[in-house]
Amino acid sequence: MQVIRLCLIVCRCAALALLFGLALERSASAQDNKGPGTGFRIALNLEGDPGDFPSHVCVISVAREGITLDRNRDSQISLSVPEPEIRSRTGEPDQRGPKGGEAIGVSCLDERGPCEPKISIPRDTDNHRLVCAKNTRETKQPWRVAVIHLREVRYDGGTASANLSPIDQPRLDGNVVTLSVRSVISKAKTIDLVGAVIGGHYAESSYRPMETDSAKIALGEAAPSVRGIMRLPLIPRCRTHEIVLPPGTREVSARAHLETGREPFSCDVHLDTSRQFKMRIPYVAERTTKRVVVVASDDRGATSARYTGTWIDFEPPPAIELKHTMVRFSWKRDCLYPKTVSCPAVTVVSTGLACRSAPSGSAPDVCDYVCGSVETGKTRRAQRPGAGGRAARYEPQFSMPARLRFARPKSDEAWEDTLAYGNQLLSGFVSAADRRVDVSLRRWGTSEEVSRLLHRRAAGIEWLVVRGPTGTEHYVRPEPDSAARLWIPGVSCGDVFSFRIVGERAYHDDEVKVTEGVIEFPHPESQEIIFLRDIALGGIADLARRNPAFPAGDEWELDWFGFVRGVVGLRPRGTAVQIELRASFMLGSHLYYPLRAPGELAAAPHSEDVLFSRSMLEAGVFWIAWPKVHLGGSAGLAVSAPIWSDDFRRAGAPQPALTWGLAGRYLFTRRTSVELGQRFIYRDLNYTFSTDFRGAPTWSTTASLPVQLELGLRIAL
Length: 717
What we know:
717 residues, mainly beta, Immunoglobulin-like, 4 domains, eleven-stranded mixed sheet, 5 helices, rod-shaped, disordered N terminus
């Protein structure tokens, strides 16, 4: 490295010696080859910063004779001294590492790229003369060369067909250059003398004329006694500016890019707690948008943020304050955010700038984002006022900490979080009061299978009811193809909720757990209640026709009973049939005829009532014809007897009988229904008591076929 630096110093010194050698040779040649024409003395007033004078000045003029300056070669001649000498004499700190080590790559104070001293050689002719002089005063800068070009123009504005040659060495005193020139013209014409700064360590200026009444010189007049003053602006090609990064910057290293519409320049920067660094920025005499872009990296070397500062004037302000135009960050999925859902959309609240997803190989539960443009020069273009009619790149800027808005795709669920620095890992989520969970019917099968389950005959499903952490019930109507979402305030990861299915058949209550923001309901058939337990209460009208041979003759008997019934049922999964085992107990009054004396007239008997009971055990089958209407029948065994044993002699002892009937019921709710039925009892015996020829009590029996009509209220347990 030291050898290369030494070679550069030697080459630059050799080039400088060659430049001054050419200047002295051409000046001597000019003295020896004076031709006829007009000579006069002029003063060049270099107007720059107070007290800031160039260390050297070189004057270029057009000449018929002389050595030609090659525009591609001589314009690149370095007029600077080695970089260490610049830093030591100017006192400007170089950009070094945190421990004062070697500079990181190219320093932002290097005079390279647009700040490299150059000469803009005029293109009006190929022959030029060059003379140089050193400042007689002590200057602040160790080596700052100003290169000036003088030429003649016709009075009417055209270029003079003449030569303007310095006839003596220029003298530089402070900011004033004095020299004598002669004009060699083939024909007598009125001309103007103009000059401009064309390079060196200073910015190019426009051509300016002499400020004197004698500036218009009529050729042919005698003597070089005319004196004029020419004022030329002397603006440093580059100045040192402070680059200030926004608060909250945490990066340790960055690369700065300078974009002025001229030659691009990039340099490496070490960032410390001051968030500032110095940079050489050129003077550009165009009202276009210029910018400084800093691409920062974190301690792992990953690009984390991009900062931009812009200006339109010829020079930026002394301190250029940057703002964020790009920042990288990540968001860790909340356990309530399903992994099957794509990463949320993110926008910067203050500017509306949309951040895009930027996968970087992070963990599956992490979403990576980039807000703004990643690479310099790749941003979109838009017309900006004051850009001189040019299309300038427009980059939305935002301040940090920045408020970000997250929005879940295809949902109205959104939340905000604060981004404080680049590559930050955020983990914010919806507030507890607005949280929701997804409802999954994945276990129910495909969409066709779900539709079949929802609309099964007599087993359709209407609602899924979930009881939240506060005890509030939340209803979800399941659909085959829709992704239902359930609003449950206060829900947390791993919560367990009770739920039930509301439909045309009975289901068990069960529990579900919130997993990755999803409640996954089990298959409904696994929740169906197969074994049923009901109780029924009601009344029965018992109508029976008596034997006409009895003394009372042909008559109909009407008894009233109340009943209580217990039911155990079985409803197989996926069917519309319910099988029941029914046990009933009836209690009411029953008519009988008391003892009568032999020979008593048949019309004389008087019937009486006794407290009577019937117990039944039946098996039944019901068909669920409609969601709320069940039709079926039952058959079984009945035992009838008086309640009290003393009444056995009056109304008969316990006796079995066969029973069968039809019934239908209507469901008011899932647990209550009303049932209407009709039943026959086969061989239900009626007793008639009398005395035999000895006077001993006796009875006779007759079978009847009572018809029972019952109405009862049935309640599911």
